[in-house]
Amino acid sequence: MLTEDEAIAGIERLTSALEQRSLETRSIRQFFNVGEWLLAFEGLEACATYFTDAERNELAALKDYFGAPA
After folding, report:
1. How many other CB atoms are there within 10 angstroms of residue 35's CB atom?
2. How far apart are CA 56 and CA 16, in angstroms?
3. Count of alpha carbons within 13 Å of 68, Cβ hemisphere only?
4. Which strand (E) or helix (H) includes residue 36?
5. pTM of the model as a whole
């Protein structure tokens, strides 16, 4: 399982790679910025309860698409 720092570094690598291909990453950055704020102030369990099913599914789809470990 990834640590929080490893996960954040992976997200940064992903968004940088997308930006190098001239793809829009604003919504990805906003999504993960909210997640980081929730983790920082409310903890992992609270973060999980704030995300909607659609957001959790979107994150899972991103992981599947880019081959990130689950």
Report:
1. 20
2. 22
3. 19
4. helix 26-50
5. 0.42
Query: What is the domain count for the chain?
Result: 1
Predicted confidence at residue 44, as pLDDT, reads: 54
Using CA atoms of 13, 58, 33, 41 in order, give the dihedral in degrees to the nearest 10. -120
Burial (CB < 10 A; 0-12, 13-18, 19+), residue 51, is: middle
**DSSP assignments along 39-69, one per residue:** HHHHHHHHHHHHS-HHHHHHHHHHHHHHT--
Using one digit for the tens of pLDDT, what is the confidence trace for 6-29?
A: 777 787 888 888 888 888 877 777
For residue 40, give its domain range. Answer: 4-66
Taking Cα atoms as reference points, which of 32, 40, 38, 28 lies closest to residue 8?
32
